[in-house]
Specification:
Blueprint lengths: L22 H15 L3 E13 L6 E5 L4 E3 L10 E10 L12 E11 L1
Antiparallel strand pairs: 1-2, 1-4, 2-3, 4-5
Length: 115
Amino acid sequence: MADDASSDDRPADGSRSGRRPSTAARLAAQRLARDDSAGGLGPPLELEGVVEEGVEAGAVVLREASGRTWLLGASRRGLVGHRVRVVGAERRGVLTTAQQGPPLAVRELEDLGPA
C-alpha cells in the first residue's frame, strides 16, 4: 500500500513537504497576484498601424508607424496588409513564442482598408 499523505496531513499550502517556497517563487507569486488583481491588462491604448505576418508561424502583428510591434494573434490573419485602428490593452504576464512585441488584448478594431 502506498504511503500517501492525506490532505489533512499536508501543510496549509497543500504541498507534500513542509518546506517554504524560495524567495524567487514568493516574488513571482506576488507579481502574478498583482497582475491578476488588475485583470492582467495594462492601461487602455489606442493604436493605429498595419497588420503584418509575424516571423513565427501563425503570428500576426500590428506595426505602428514608429516601428513598434504588438502581437494580435492568428485570428486576425485576414487583416494582413490592412491599416487598422485598435483599442485595447497590453496583456501582462503572458509568455509567447513570437517575441515580436507584447501581446495585445483587442477590445475594438476598425479596418481602415488596404495599406
